[in-house]
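Reader question, answered in our methods column.
A reader sent in the components of a multi-part assembly and asked whether the whole thing could be modeled at once rather than chain by chain. We filled in our standard form and ran it. Here is what they sent:
COMPLEX SIZE: three components
ENTRIES:
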Amino acid sequence: MGKKQGRTCRKLSAGFAAASLTLTAQRLTALRQLLNDSTEMADDLSQVIRDLNSAPAAGQLFLFTAVLADNEQLLREVFRDCDDIRYRSFAAGDKRALLVYLRGMTDVTLLEKNVLEILMSSKNQQLVSVTADLLMNQLITSAALRIQTSASEVIEDVMSGNALLLIDGIAETLVVGAVKYAKRQVAESKVEGLARGPHDAFTETLEDNLVLLRRRSHDPNLKVRIFQLGERSKTSLAVVYVANLVKPGLVAEVERRLEQIKVGQVLLSATVEEWIIDHPWSPFPQTGSTERPDVMSAALYEGRVGLLLDNTPQALLVPCTIGSLMQSVEDYTVQPVVASLIRLTRYLTALLGIFLPAMYIAIVSFHPGMLPTSLAISVAEIRAKTPYPAFMEVLIMEFILEVFQEAVTRMPEKVAPAATIVGGFVIGSTLVQSGLVNAMLVVAIAGTAIASYTMPSYNLSLTLRWLRVPTILLAAFLGFFGIVLGYLAIVVHMCSLRSFGESYLGGLFDITLLEDMKDKLGRLPAKWMGSRPKQFGPQDRTRAGE
Amino acid sequence: MASLPVWRRARLVGGYLLLVALSLALAGCWDQAEIQDRGFVLAVAVDVADVPGSQAKPDARLESYNEGGKNLPRYRLSLQILRLGGSTGGEKIGESKTFVISDTGGSMFEMVRDMLGQSSKTIWFENLQFIVISEAAVRRGGLDRVMDFWRRDAEMRWRAKVFITSGEARPILEYMPPSGEPGGIFLNHVARRQIKAPQLATAINDLLSVMQLLDAKSDLFLPRVELEGKTLKLEGAGLFKRDQFVGYSDEYAVKGARIIRGAEKSALISAACPVHPGNFLVFELFRHDTRLRPHVDGDNIYFTLDIAMRGNLGEVSCQAEHKTQSSEYLRAAQVLFAEEVKHNVLYAFQAQQKMGVDGVGLARYLKAYEPVAWARIKDRWDEIYPTVPLIVSVNVAIVNVGEHQ
Amino acid sequence: MANLEVKSQMSPLQLAIVVIVMVIGIHSDTLVRVIKDAGSAAWLSLLLGGGLFCGAALVMVKLGDLFPGLTVVEYLPLLWGKWLGAAVIFLFTVIFVIHTSFMLQGFSRVIAFFMFDRTPFEVLEAGLLAVCVYCALQDWGTILRVVQLVFFTAVPAALGFIGLSMVSFHYINILPLWPQHIQGVGYGVWHSWQEYFGYEVLLMLLPLVYRGKSRMSLVLAGSFAFLSVFFVFVTSLVIGTFTVEGVINLPYPLVSAIRSADLPGTYLERLDTYYLLFWIQIQFAMFAVILYILAQVPTRYFGYADHRPWVLALTPLLFIGGDALHSSRLYIMAAQSSNLLGMAFSLGIIPASYGLAWWRRRGGNGANG
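And here is the structure of the entire assembly that came back:
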């Protein structure tokens, strides 16, 4: 400003209104006011947040406070009428402390040694204050120790067998992991035993099962992810897979399907199976089920995913094809040539198990011309004594067979020998002698029953039983033509089944999967089985190396 | 259902369609007939009806039916049906396993259907073992007329044998074989012995071959079965020109015919010993290589037959006087046997030429190997055939003389 | 890689297997027809026919190569214009419908004659069509796997039974091998189209084939060679068992030939029912693929996303068509008309289309400089 060469000095604000000093001062005061207001607002907000934090969050039953009496009251409320929850109150230093545990599921000796002994010992009496930090880092010598604040998780931990340590004055709780309960020893599988090979099988305890798996492969790539299924029962499910082998996207798909499971309680792996398969109405089992850790381990290393559910020894394997269902561990412990014949026989007996009674009806009632003359005459002689048409005979025998099979499954062991006599002699011989059923049919039905038992998978043998009845009906109405139609319908159905993307039957005769034939209908020696099955889409096809 | 995606809807509809289609089948089962409810026909006999002097039975009236006025030449059809053990208890010793029912009429099919009035079970031909036709029946209408139903029906077994008999055919069905088998099976199995017995004409004389030869308008021969008293025997054959019966040829001629065709599997050639009259030697044939070929030389047609045989010495009645293992003996024996074969062959061939019947099937060979010549002369074959010469050359090799020298 | 996403694709060898399964279900009527024309030189007719239709198939492959990713329904209108293209597609469909009805009727006749007595044809047709519909409603990946299963189980078994019937074979019956009348051989080649019918499906299936390790034309030629050899074998077997005159008098020579196989002392007799069981499976695979292809034609033409409604729409048409051919006059007429149309299509229209497409490509390239 100032005079310069006779020009008039003008203020900046004459030309530029926003540059005025007064305006600026006004604005400054307004800004200061704003700042003060916002600071007050912030104080208010933080007070609100503090108030909110002091209330239990959604889903939480209550909030732990630093007052032991309140906490104990709240816990007793939740565990009211659970008489197996025990409360041990004691003094830790100068504070009151409470130990809550579920009797029977907790290792009381461990608690006594690691918690009570330490906190109640004389040298700790001098402690002025006990903080959670001190407890965690210096005092409690338990290997599994967690600080927990959320009430629902604390309750879940106590119901799982962990012990809860509450100390007056500390708002956090400590969960001491000391789970021990009565469980079954690792024993041989009753359903999947074999002559030469390991005899251990999965038990009902998830941790033990995982140990059995881990022992077979000391591979850090074998990943275990644990989920909780069932809103009420909160059962643990472990999804096991080998990360650098499994087909990309398979694990994500499995987990996606697991997340859709909405039940209160999950008891059996079969329930999980029904939720995750693609075709719930099909009679065929669409996941592999095994009790043997060696089977599961081999499957994992082919690129499949395993599911282990707590409290069930049966593990699930996905994806599953008919080829994998028809493989048995015995095939790999016997010479390859012998094993190939046995496996081929297994496929043929599967066909027999479905079609033999139907073929009997078709030959005897519709196409007796198929028999050579001498056989036809003996068949006619035998059948001349029985009063029913073949169709009814077969249905009667099938019904008796079903009743028998159900009875055998439910029978207590003490009654079994007597029942064998009743079943074998009375039903078998006397039926034939009385002329109600002819001997040839009894042989045929017995052969069918035995054929369906040769299946390595129990579910598959039940499927064969189920499929027998429609084929008997088809044979009774259209003879051999009906049987062929039934066979074709079964084949089409099996080819259309998809188990997590893999065709159920289609892979057996698919020429693009020709390399997999070395382990399907027969088996090549181990030296020639150098690559993994193409069908499961593993990331690395060679078995050797990492 | 409208809320489902299209493909699921279509799958449901497809499922319903499948159900409907299956229930179409459920509407009834049309062809269910239990095996024990079928009457197994093991053998069939065709005779002529109303032949004077035949066994005029009192039930002749029942065994015929009203044809509706057609005046057809009448045949008599007999069926041998198996008797099943069944719920009436076991069979008595000595009782036949089969029984025979008969009917007379013009059409085979109608007679069969009429016989349903005599049978409690449905008549079922799928186990048919043989058909025997009497000479009179064949002379009456020709073979074509008799055979038409049997080659047309779907149930017939094409390996059923066809026989001819000079007398009545029905008693052959009633014959009870001493081995206890049902009659049809017995005779069928007898016919199977042709492997070791070249004088049986049954190598290629089942329903299939008869049908095939009739279609090709060839001449054929049917094996002949005779029943006298309690003896049933297959011997010789009946010769047919197209489908008309011409005459019989005996076993020696049948054997020769089979040797020409190369159809024998194991034959015995017996020759008389020239040194010791009244004695003989027998040659057992194991392998042979027979070639029958036509040759056309301008207007001349002739056939050559080259046979090479290998086998053992089967029986020598004057063995003590010969050194059967010496090479001169063997060479002489081989020549003898070759002569015998040639004699047999020419005997058979000339017998057939005399009857004018090309039972061996020279026409077929001519057509196969010289189709051009055949096309030229096929209309005159009937005249040419009796004049066609057969040039035979036989080579016999004795490989072994057996266990004893 | 055998994976979920690529299950609808196939390799050239799989296409060859589909073609083989389509063609190998021998139809007795056509066999008699060819033998009636050519006599004992029927083998020559079938070989020549095989070569001819192999050529037609290779032209189809080349035509498909000019329009990658498109089926015949999509590129024919591009070539011939909207109306003419629609007419050709309609012709394609009509050939399939007529000949399939003919084969369906023939199928039920054979089964009813040999396996049953009084069961009506409609029941047999309905039963088979029901299972075929179930199969055709699936996606192509499933159908392909079913066809492969049939190829590896039913085809060798059927071939085994056909081979077993060699026991009644007489060499002399098939002589003379060389033809006496050339025009008979010619007529035989014309009628052999009915034997080789089925390879036209590759027009619709070509876009699904990924050109993998094997060359398409080589593999197809191999399959036609296999089929020709098989037909020659069957013809020789049938003539050798029955002679030419005998075959002409038989309506179902092949099954009758198998029926006549009998080795006394073993249980080898009455093999025809066993053969028919496997033949039914091969026919089922053929009908299922045809039904699928027939449904794909309107699906692609009208732009539907899914072929399933068309499967359900076309099935009654085939059933009625198969049933309507009860009278022999209609039956023979159907075969003759489809024969004529089929020959015109395979040997006339397709090569013309290929020529047109090639000329257009060349002309287009020339115009672009």
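What stands out: Confidence is low (pLDDT under 50) at residues 1-5 of chain C. Chain C has one domain: 12-350.
Send us your own complexes using the same form.
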